[in-house]
Amino acid sequence: MASLAMPAHAQQPKPLAGPWHGTLATPANPPQLILHITEQPNGVLAVALDVPSQKVAGLAFSGAELRQDSLILLSDFLGVRYAGRLSADGQQVNGRWKQNGEQWPLVLQRGLPAAAAPPPRPQDPVAPLPYLEQQVRFKNPSGGHELAGTLTIPRSKAPFPAVVLVSGSGPQDRDESILGHHPFRVLADYLTRRGFAVLRYDDRGVGQSGGTFATATTADFLADAQAAVAFLRTQTGVQPKRVGLIGHSEGGTIALLAGAEPNPPAFIVSLAGMGVNGRELLLRQQADILRASGLDTASTGRMRRTQQTLLTVIQTTPDNPPAIARMVPLLKQASPGVPESTLTTMAAQMTSPWYRYFLGLNPAPALTKVKAPVLALNGSKDVQVAADLNLAAIQSGLKAAGNRDVTVQQLDGLNHLFQTATTGLPSEYGQISETFSPSALQIIGNWLAAHARR
């Protein structure tokens, strides 16, 4: 990533080049920071920031200066000022990090941090497993590609009811892996032990699956999920009339949409699926994340207005080049100091086929056609798909369909991944050892057991 910088004093030695690391001493969930300092031939210091726990990499500081033995860093984008003093041996910088009216100690050590031990994930299944596990491939006729996945089958007497797991947004593997967690592996293990055959698969263009991810939309992923259901219905040992869909996040929405299509699943579990349109969801998501992050009301309001304008530009400008040309100045105004190349990349991502489709996606018409039994769950600490807003919309839509077999439940204290959480912020996901709340697993398993017998 390109970096902006202020010139350092030409007469001063520059002993800082290379990586540095430290832990920001915030009261909750202290993040590890990694700073990459380079010294340009023209006497300029440039500094880029990584925050691994928050998936931040290469974020350039807008100012970097060495004054005698003091390092001064500025980030207009983050609203950060760091001032620290270099130790006599040149191996440590001791200073304070100021951001949005607060400040915390930050001691930087020369070099990269030692490789961390893998985080504990006690729910990951460990061999030997009490069920069969098969690697499978199946075709999506409409897309002309094959998808690869894992089918787990109980060892007890067949045939079995079965479910397909559908992942959330972004390129996901069959385990929906994130920050060392494998939510779908844990869910498949739990349900297979309870007597269900479970199919989970890599997204198109991910892992061992064919197809192209970059140009795919929610409609394409819906077609993949339908192909998975059709495949599972043909498998030996599976009860073809008792094959359901369980989806998480975007997958939860896809599961609901599939219920309005021909040959719908026998039952549906929507985990943090959306019930409102994409624009409304994205605006609420931004507000909830900023609130949970502790951002002040004025700053939150400014960012919301910018987001509203950006989304309107996307929705009213169908061609990408003029849309991006209108978006970059807005992004620059909201994020001064960030290189224009970075802002252009952000605008391009927001005008991708998936983003454009999702922005206009409204599940309400489909919900009024869903007749299959539905279980819709969401966590009260979900800052990505707000529980109150979306569960109410899902329930309202299904009620309009005359669907009398609907269970809607908000689960206290759980985040978007259905972990027991403190803040609900994505930065917390990897720090929690729990992959999937046992109480949520039990609710899903009990509901499926009751409906699979029908």
TrEMBL record:
Entry keywords, A to Z: Hydrolase
UniProt GO molecular function: hydrolase activity
Presence of the UniProt keyword Hydrolase in the record: yes
One Pfam family here: Peptidase_S15
Residue ranges occupied by any Xaa-Pro dipeptidyl-peptidase-like domain in the UniProt entry: 144-386
Coiled-coil regions listed in the entry: none
Cited InterPro entries: AB_hydrolase_Est10, AB_hydrolase_fold, Xaa-Pro-like_dom
Annotated spans, Disordered: 1-23
Protein name per UniProt: Alpha/beta fold hydrolase
Species per Swiss-Prot/TrEMBL record: Hymenobacter canadensis
